[in-house]
Structures are given as structure tokens and as C-alpha cells.
Design brief:
The chain is mainly α. Helix content is 64%, strand content 1%. The protein has a two-stranded antiparallel sheet. The longest helix has 77 residues, at 2-78. The protein is extended and about 110 Å long. The relative contact order is 0.06. This is GUN4-like domain-containing protein. GO terms for molecular function: tetrapyrrole binding. Residues 237-247 have a biased composition (Low complexity). Residues 233-256 are annotated as: Disordered.
Length: 276
């Protein structure tokens, strides 16, 4: 039995060796594809990297294009054409334009004031100033032309529209508004500056400092100019409830007036003899 076992062992040994030999090529075959996979993965990584780089380059180009577009738009804004001199009344605004363009601020303000009297009609031209009732009737086209000239040549520092924004921002409080646009003299207890020597005729003056409108006799004229339809937003249409309330208020007022008149009539009557 021992010999048989040894023989079996000896006979099986080559088989095991053969199996081992067969196993070796298998491991070799596994190792070879591993090298191929490694090279493929490197190529894939390189391709992926190049793809990411290309996408990043495209994004960079897109961002540069957006930036260039914004800069071009800014250049277009800076190169706005000069305002057109439109007028519904045939008024010539070329002198005002030339004075503002030359930076002659005091002379431009004087011409501006003269033009307002022209818009007011013959009566305002003769008296040399404008009533607030006349200012309300100024054509929108002409008021926009005047304001566009001021804002354009002052780089949006002066003009009625600029003054209105400041006034509204100060909640329509005149004292704060005058302080903001530097129409008050700090050295004289915030008294109104004397015209023309104490006003600042420079582009570096406070925003909204020009054009000047006298408020010594009240603010009605200045308010009419700042509330002009050329600058103020259109009023919202009244609702049905608001219209009904106004009508009711009108009827009530008429009734009160009628009652008051009736009471006045009773005062003139004499008491009858039986009431004495």
C-alpha cells in the first residue's frame, strides 16, 4: 500500500506541476491586460484634462466677451449725443446750450431765467419774472429740453429733475432741501444766500445747486417747477370709491352752504306778535 501511495504521489506530481504551468500563462494573461488598461486610463485622463481645459477656455472667452460688451455699453453711454433743442413754442435754446457747454454757469442761469419768462408769455416777459400759475402751463417738451441741457453739460449734477429727486428724498421739506443743495449760508445762521454774489457758479458746487429759483417770497413757483409733468410721475387714476367720496363731499358742502344761507335769511325775520 505504501508503494502504491508513493507511486500515486509520484504520478500526481507532474500533474500538479502541469497545472501550475497552466496557471502561469493565465496569470500572465491577466497581467498583460492590466498594462493595457493602465495605458488606456492615462490616455483617458489626458483627454479629460484637455476637455476641461477647453471648456474653461470657452468660459473665459465668454466672460471676456461679456466684460467687453459692458465696457462698450459704458462707452456708448459716455458718448451720448448732445440734447436736441426741441420747442413747442418755437423758442431758441442755442444760447443756453452754448453757455452751459462753455461752463459759463452764471450767464447760463441768467439765460435760463429769461427763457422761463418767454415760456410764460408777453406779460411775464414784461414784468421779468414768472408766476407759479404760469409755470404750470409750460409745455412739457420745452421743460425737458431745458432740463436735458442742464443735466447733460453738468454730468447730471444740475437741473430741475436732479433738484426734484433731492427734494423728494428730503420728504419735500424745504429747509432740508435748501440745506442739501447749499442755498443756505452756514456763516449767517443758514440764511438764504444773497443772489448772485453768494451762490457758487462752479461745476463743483453741491449737486442740485443750479438752476436758481427765488424762494424769498415763497416756494410756490419752485414747487410748480419741480412738480411739473415733465419731471413728476403721472398721477394715478382715482378709484371708484375715491370718486364717490369726492362726490359725496361735494354734495355735503353744498348742503352746508344752503343751510347757512337759510339761517342767514331767518335772522332778518321779525317774531310774530303772539311770540312776544
Amino acid at each position: 500500500m505504501a508503494s502504491v501511495t508513493a507511486t500515486n504521489v509520484l504520478c500526481r506530481a507532474p500533474v500538479a506541476g502541469k497545472r501550475a504551468a497552466r496557471a502561469a500563462p493565465a496569470s500572465a494573461r491577466v497581467a498583460a491586460p492590466a498594462r493595457t488598461t493602465s495605458s488606456v486610463s492615462l490616455k483617458g485622463s489626458k483627454g479629460a484634462f484637455e476637455g476641461v481645459a477647453m471648456r474653461a477656455d470657452r468660459r473665459g472667452s465668454a466672460l471676456r466677451a461679456i466684460t467687453d460688451t459692458k465696457e462698450a455699453a459704458a462707452d456708448v453711454e459716455e458718448e451720448k449725443p448732445e440734447p436736441t433743442l426741441e420747442s413747442d413754442l418755437g423758442v431758441d435754446y442755442s444760447k443756453l446750450r452754448d453757455l452751459l457747454k462753455a461752463g459759463e454757469w452764471e450767464e447760463a442761469d441768467n439765460e435760463h431765467r429769461r427763457l422761463l419768462t418767454v415760456l410764460g408769455g408777453e406779460d411775464s416777459e414784461e414784468r421779468g419774472w414768472v408766476y407759479f400759475t404760469e409755470a404750470r402751463q409750460f409745455p412739457v417738451t420745452d421743460m425737458k429740453t431745458i432740463d436735458n441741457l442742464w443735466t447733460f453739460y453738468s454730468d447730471n449734477r444740475f437741473g430741475f429733475s436732479v433738484q426734484r429727486k433731492i427734494w423728494v428724498g428730503q420728504r419735500r421739506q424745504w429747509a432740508k432741501f435748501f440745506k442739501q443743495i447749499d442755498w443756505l449760508n452756514d456763516e449767517k445762521n443758514d440764511a438764504y444766500r444773497k443772489w448772485p454774489e453768494e451762490f457758487i457758479w462752479k461745476k463743483e458746487a453741491a449737486k442740485g445747486h443750479m438752476p436758481l429759483t427765488s424762494a424769498l417770497r415763497g416756494t410756490q413757483l419752485l414747487e410748480a417747477l419741480l412738480e411739473h409733468p415733465a419731471f413728476a410721475p403721472p398721477a394715478k387714476p382715482k378709484s371708484a370709491a375715491e370718486q364717490a367720496a369726492e362726490q359725496l363731499g361735494g354734495v355735503q358742502k353744498q348742503a352746508e352752504q344752503a343751510l347757512g344761507n337759510a339761517m342767514k335769511g331767518l335772522k332778518g325775520l321779525k317774531k310774530p306778535s303772539w311770540m312776544k
